[in-house]
Amino acid sequence: DKDKDSLREKYEALQVELMAVQLKYQREVERLERENKELRKTLLLKAQTSPTAKMRKVKKSLIDMYSEVLDELCDYDSSYDTQDHLPRVVVVGDQSSGKTSVLEMIAQARIFPRGAGEMMTRAPVMVTLSEGPYHIAQFKDSTREFDLTNEEDLSELRMEVELRMRNSVSGGRTVSHDVISMTVRGPGLQRMVLVDLPGIISTVTTDMASNTREAIQAISEQHMSNPNAIILCVQDGSVDAERSNVTQLAATMDPSGKRTIFVLTKVDLAEQNLANPDRIKKILSGRLFPMKALGYFAVVTGRGNSNETIADIRDYEEQFFTNSKLFRSGGVVSSHQCTTRNLSFAVSECFWKMVRDTVEQQADAFKATRFNLETEWKNNFPRMRELDRDELFEKARGEVLDEVVNMSLVSPKYWEDALSKKLWDKTNTYVFENIYLPAAQSDNSGTFNTIADIKLKQWADMGLPRKCVEVGWETLQEEFRKLMDKSKTSRDHDDIFDNLKAAVVDEAIKRHKWEDKASDVLRVIQLNALEDRSVSDKQQWDAACKFLEESVKEKMVANEATLKEMIGPSSSEQWLYWRTPTDEQRRRAAVRSELDKLLKATYNHKNTLTFDEVTTTRKNVQTAGYDVDNEFIRQTWHPVYRRHFLRKSLAKAYDSRKSFYAYHQGLEGELGVDCNDIVLFWRIQQMIKITANALRQQVMNREARRMEREIKAVLEECGCDRERKATLLVGRRVQLAEELKRVRQIQEKLEEFIHALNNEK
């Protein structure tokens, strides 16, 4: 027993001596490293500020080149497809196990937000560690550099990380698959790429989405399933081993342990809790958990105080392993398995070994992918250039703007003809029903002109200018759409742009508003035009006659269609086409027959029926065997009288063709000629002509340019909105061009990286 006690004392003394020697040499190595850091920093700064530095292209470090490849892959394949088998260091662990603190110790900066027991890592964070003269951090999509030696910058960086994580979760989710990418540079940092994943949980709390546990599991498996990813499995040493979730997951994803490094954190708390040395020894020798690993490490990541600096934590860690009875005696752990510094060296070494062993295979895989995509393009689109979505958008932008230029080439006559036609189409019903028909009920010329003047002025004061502006807006819209549709018939038309062009035009038209003062300008010129009743020459008279005749004929066609629908097929149509009128149509036909007799007896009948006339008509129809009410008779009267009135108007128009001399000499009364209808329609025709001219000037001088500005603004917005472009430019051709572009970029960056890797000593 005395011999055994003596041997144990010697063993412990040797163990203490060995630890002291190792710490002595470790301090010496750290001193030399600090001197080396200062020298490297001086050299890097000198290289950056030398006169020739601006004249030559800055050579990227290996890790920066590798990180660019990974960033390209993140954008190209956000679902982490099996094609992406490039190595990363995937940091996994249970929630609050200290995995983020381990990553911060490796990065030598407290760059992540902290929370007391709250889930803080809500999305994967890819951190690229690289050497540089200054200790700085930068996001992939930002130019700002955060000074990691400045506490204010560190605080802003943590807030930015937290903000990006919260922005990445939407739709009620708690965690996200979207990768946040950042680079940390500094003197003496081990070059590698780490991905910090959300901590694995056992229970979903009430403030989490119901599928949070499964979502975290899926994210972890997604990143760990990469056969070349190094799994940094972080286990909390202060809790019972049986409560571990991460070790079982690591054992499932890497059964052989060829790419797993195990890290036991919070071993200082384990000692405080009087942990069994044999149990910790089993953990660090790989005999307790059902998993295998390349190496096992014990680390201390601070006292749990968020205000501690990296230097404070490193000193505390060194002090703990120097004085710890648990780790100093009993051979619990070897000295090279302690401290985050040794862990960082080991992880970096494994990472670069995996990179050198696998990167060539990945380059070959992308070569094969590129060949397949290029073959598909040659077979399906042999005579087309490979234009990605951005290039296609620029081409479509040019075509749309070309059509805007073509709109400025439309002749003034074409604009005026289109506007005149549209104006009359929009106003003819109002003219006939509210102006011409009431004025025509008068018994003499004076009353006709008085009613017409009053009605025309009311029209010009109230709704006419606004209606004309609407006509101008609609005509501008229709003509631009016609130009766009006309371009589809050209030989060079590419239908892949149709959705984009239609969306841009629709949005621009929706935004375009006519100038507010346009209505006021039109009101003045329309009032002046409508007040003029002097037809100066025979040519204008003939044009007014033609205008009246054509307008009346159009109305007659429309009225006949309405009347035909009311009374049903004629006798000949019933025999020839086997059509049978309905009961209502038979009653309408009987009423129409009686009303026609009434109008024939009273040629200059007013546009309304008296009560006696309605009663007489109803009794006559009842005698014919049809029972109708007064309202039914008045409904039928409307189109019947309109037909009678239009026929009278057309006859007047024919008679007035040769009445210009009588009108010009003021002999209408003496010769029994009625020219009021022609003069009224001449006034309306002149108003339409002057309005069309004014609208044409507004279109060509102002509104077309304002429309062009709206189109350019919409195109600019679409150009900056990738999601919108992705919905408007679709199809296999676009998708294939996009994939080809990305695969070429990735392959080129991979080849550049491999070349630099092979040249590195």
UniProtKB/TrEMBL annotation:
GO terms for molecular function: GTP binding; GTPase activity; lipid binding; microtubule binding. GO terms for cellular component: microtubule; mitochondrial inner membrane; mitochondrial intermembrane space. It is an enzyme of class 3 (hydrolase). Residues 4-49, 697-760 form a coiled coil. InterPro entries: Dynamin (IPR022812), Dynamin_GTPase (IPR001401), Dynamin_N (IPR045063), G_DYNAMIN_dom (IPR030381), OPA1_C (IPR045817), P-loop_NTPase (IPR027417). GO terms for biological process: apoptotic process; endocytosis; intracellular distribution of mitochondria; mitochondrial fission; mitochondrial fusion; peroxisome fission. It is a single-pass membrane protein. Keywords: Apoptosis, Coiled coil, Disulfide bond, GTP-binding, Hydrolase, Lipid-binding, Membrane, Mitochondrion, Mitochondrion inner membrane, Nucleotide-binding, Transit peptide, Transmembrane, Transmembrane helix. It comes from the Eukaryota. It is found in: Mitochondrion inner membrane; Mitochondrion intermembrane space. The keyword Signal does not apply. Its EC number is 3.6.5.5. It catalyses: GTP + H2O = GDP + phosphate + H(+). Residues 83-360 form the Dynamin-type G domain. This is Dynamin-like GTPase OPA1, mitochondrial.
